[in-house]
Structures are given as structure tokens and as C-alpha cells.
Specification:
Blueprint (H helix, E strand, L loop, with lengths): L4 E6 L3 E7 L8 E6 L6 H16 L6 E6 L3 E2 L4 E2 L13 H9 L3 E5 H12 L8 E6 L3 E7 L2 E3 L29 H5 L1 H14 L7 H6 L9 H9 L3 H25 L3 E5 L7 H14 L7 E4 L6 H9 L6
Parallel strand pairs: 1-4, 4-7, 8-11, 11-12
Antiparallel strand pairs: 1-2, 2-3, 5-6, 8-9, 9-10
Helix pairs in contact: 3-10, 5-7, 5-8, 7-8, 8-9
């Protein structure tokens, strides 16, 4: 680092800021703020810019790196849109930040930035070819190839969540059937469990999961499914295994196509327990060719991967 870096992570439900003054292990400051109710792009910017100014005081950063939860035109630093918050369409976020904080900035989507963070500072260190995958509200990915982010022709590389692994499967939000995201993400995993509980007349089916939810099917989420599975609930174990298998098939196909040495997995669903990890690895290994070698490991930076990726993304100060 040549000077203090301001790293920003614009998320769907919360925003995070890191003021990195002395490398990964130095005296750095991280702040988080919930996204404003009924958020808009203007409200998000006001919240994040205001919090950043409080952290900076009267000083300016040497550079700014930004992780954004949506498609970004990296070459221009323009946010194409947000899938969760209105008003971000074609927002020149990079130029806005440079005007506001008088420092060079770079903006990229959150999966790419998290991949860079894990490569530089986390579980991807020493592996020049890797894919980072987040499995939470959705399923997204970012590639590091030969030590650099690979964005693809239109900046859309890494969309493993919309790899079809079951053409006869349920319909995804994207309109296709059987996408990895539709089968493996937290909300859909929980929705599958609720549907099975609702359709099963046998009160013994999923009894532990029902108990953990207090009898309220609406309270069933991915965390409760994982807990019930770990405690022996057969219905929850089946749901978790199906979701893990779908993700593993997607990973195995990606391994065959690009041949990275490592897949780094982050996001809330990865906290579902060792049985989930075993199922993911087994399905990936069964799908990939025997000659295609790779490992699948947990993310090392947790929720901070986009922030540290933004530190690595920030440009060198030019003046």
C-alpha cells in the first residue's frame, strides 16, 4: 500500500466501509450500516458517502476501491443496475467518488472483488487460477485466471448461479429451469423445505425442523434447515443434500470447462455443516473428469472478502 485506501462495499441489505491504513494486519477501521428502508441509489450514496467522510475526517484517501452488488461496467466505473435497489441504472459511481473524495477510484461487481480479496489475502493465496463462489441469497462467482480478474467479453463471467444442472427442475427467476441458484441458494433451500413440510401429512416428517421453527413454516430458513439436518432430521438432511449436489454439479462442470486449481466458497449457506461440504465435494468430483484436479475450500475472509478485494482493486495514486 502506498497510502490509506478507502474500500466500499455496497450490498443489498447492508453497506460496509474499510479505511485501510497499514495493510491487512494494521490498524484498520471497518464500519457497517444497514441499507436505508425503502432504499434508493441516492439514499445508499448519501449513507455511504456520509459514513466515509466521518471516518476520514478532513483527510482524503490515496485511492478508493469499490465492491458493488450488481452488474458493473468496469472500464468506465458505471453501475449498470441493482437487482435490489432502484435508481442505480447507469450510475457513474467511479466518477462520483473521484469528485467527492479527490482520489482515483475503481469499481467492480462484488463477486469479482471478493475473488480478488480471497486471492490476495485469503484462502486463494498461492493459487493463480481459482473461482470464488458465494452461496447466500443468490449464487454468484468470480474468476481469477493467471493472477488477474477475468471478467469476460461483457463483464458477465462467473455467473455459475445460472448454470443449468437440472433441465427439468424448478423455474429460476432468470426464466430457465434448474439453475444452481434455484436449487442451492439459501432462500430456495428454505422454500423447498417449507414446501415439503406443507405437503406432507405425516407429522413425523420433518418433526425436528417443525419444532425448531416453533410450528411456524414461515420461520423455516436455511439456518434452521442446517441445524435440523445436523441433529438428525431426515427431511432437512434430504433438502440440504439436494442443494449441495446441485452446487457440486455446477462446480464440476466449471472445473471441466476452465480447469482452475481451487474453488473458494463463501456466503451463509457454506455454514451448513460438514455433511453439506462433503456432498458438494462428492458431486463436484463425480461430475469432473478424473484428470481435472482441484480443491474446494472455505473462504478465508468471510464477509470481509469484498472489502479486502476492494483494497486490492484500488488504483495507485497518480498525482
Amino acid at each position: 500500500m502506498s497510502g490509506p485506501i478507502l474500500a466500499l462495499d455496497f450490498g443489498g441489505t447492508k453497506h460496509s466501509i474499510l479505511y485501510a491504513t497499514d495493510g491487512r494486519t494494521g490498524a484498520n477501521v471497518i464500519k457497517r450500516v444497514p441499507a436505508p428502508p425503502n432504499a434508493t441509489a441516492a439514499a445508499d450514496c448519501e449513507a455511504v458517502f456520509g459514513m466515509a467522510h466521518k471516518m476520514l475526517g478532513l483527510s482524503n484517501p490515496a485511492a478508493i476501491g469499490v465492491s458493488f452488488g450488481g452488474p458493473v461496467d468496469y472500464n468506465t466505473g458505471t453501475v449498470r443496475l441493482s437487482h435490489h435497489v432502484p435508481g442505480w441504472e447507469n450510475m457513474p459511481l467511479q466518477a462520483m467518488l473521484e469528485d467527492e473524495f479527490h482520489a482515483p477510484a475503481r469499481v467492480d461487481n462484488d463477486a469479482n472483488v471478493a475473488a480478488l480479496g480471497e486471492y490476495r489475502f485469503g484462502a486463494g493465496q498461492g493459487c493463480a487460477n481459482l473461482m470464488y463462489i458465494t452461496i447466500s441469497t443468490g449464487v454468484g462467482g468470480g474468476w481469477i485466471l493467471n493472477g488477474d480478474i477475468w471478467r469476460g467479453q461483457d463483464g458477465m463471467a462467473g455467473e455459475i448461479g445460472h448454470t443449468v444442472v437440472d433441465p427439468a427442475g424448478p423455474v429460476c427467476l432468470c426464466g430457465k429451469r434448474g439453475c444452481v441458484e434455484r436449487l442451492a441458494s439459501g432462500p430456495y433451500l428454505a422454500g423447498h423445505a417449507r414446501a415439503l413440510l406443507d405437503a406432507n401429512a405425516d407429522p413425523a416428517a420433518g418433526a425436528l425442523l417443525r419444532e425448531l421453527a416453533g410450528g411456524d413454516l414461515a420461520a423455516v430458513d436455511a439456518r434452521l434447515v442446517a441445524q435440523a439436518a445436523a441433529e438428525g432430521d431426515a427431511l432437512a438432511q434430504g433438502v440440504l443434500a439436494e442443494s449441495a449436489h446441485a452446487l457440486g454439479v455446477g462446480i464440476g462442470n466449471a472445473a471441466n470447462l476452465v480447469n482452475p486449481g481451487r474453488f473458494v466458497l463463501g456466503g451463509g449457506v457454506t455454514k451448513s455443516g460438514e455433511a453439506w461440504w462433503h456432498a458438494v465435494r462428492a458431486a463436484a468430483r463425480a461430475t469432473a473428469l478424473p484428470e481435472v484436479l482441484f480443491d474446494i475450500v472455505p473462504a478465508g475472509l468471510g464477509d470481509d472478502a469484498p472489502l479486502w478485494g476492494a483494497v486490492a482493486l484500488a488504483p495507485a495514486k497518480t498525482s
